[in-house]
Amino acid sequence: MEYFKLRNGIEIPAVGSGTNTFGRADDRYESPLNGDFTAMRSAIEVGYRMFDTAMAYGNEDGIGEEIAKSGIPRSEFFIMGKIPNRAPYNSSPENIRRSVEDSLKNLKTDYFDMFLIHKAVDEDYKAKLAAIGEKYGKHWAQVQLRYNFQSGIVSIPKSSNPKNQASNLNIFDFALTDEEMAQLS
Fold first, then answer.
1. Has residue 20 got a pLDDT over 80?
2. Full strand arrangement of the beta sheet holding 78-84
3. What is the pLDDT of residues 53-98, one digit of tens each?
4. CA-to-CA distance for 132 and 38, rounded, in angstroms?
5. C-alpha distance from residue 30 to each of 21, 38, 79, 95, 157 (Å)
6. Stated pTM of the model
7. Cα 113 from chain centroid?
8. Which of 103, 105, 47 lies closest to 80 in space, CA to CA?
9. Which one of 57, 89, 111, 147 is the catalytic residue?
10. Residue 136 bears catalytic tag
11. Which of 90, 116, 135, 181 qualifies as a FRET site for 143, CA 20 to 30 Å off?
12. Residue 79, Cβ density class (10 Å: 0-12 exposed, 13-18 middle, ≥19 buried)
């Protein structure tokens, strides 16, 4: 795994895994929780150490349990948490503090490596990414991840498919040209 060094000196994995469908039926966010965290175990097994969690996903307890059961020291993981960008979660310092404490308890850990306000990102240029990906024999998502890496941006793709999880980490064997980077800017 490649890492970025944050300004405070902490190293963060260049690629992490989203967790919004882990523990849900049919690997769909809209589906009810079913307690199946096979995708989380798979992500750990293929080498992910950064996980993007959120109280809104409702699965923090299962995520925390899988990290604990992995046998890998907590210090080797980079755990990100998020609260929703809406009241009551962000309406006061006390509500934010309570949300963080609740998430820590659910995840069975005593600290977050990073904590964010949750806001989804729009994907509007898959066609460009796919065209560039053809040149390298890569999927559009790998091109986006490589673009992020070359731009110094940490990525957190989400997949519960073991093949896609491994594919998301397979971005260090090619480089985008300056022209391709400009196309995607």
1. yes
2. 17-18, 50-52, 78-84, 114-118
3. 999 899 999 999 999 999 999 999 999 998 877 788 877 888 888 9
4. 32
5. 8, 18, 23, 26, 18
6. 0.71
7. 13
8. 103
9. 57
10. no
11. 116
12. buried
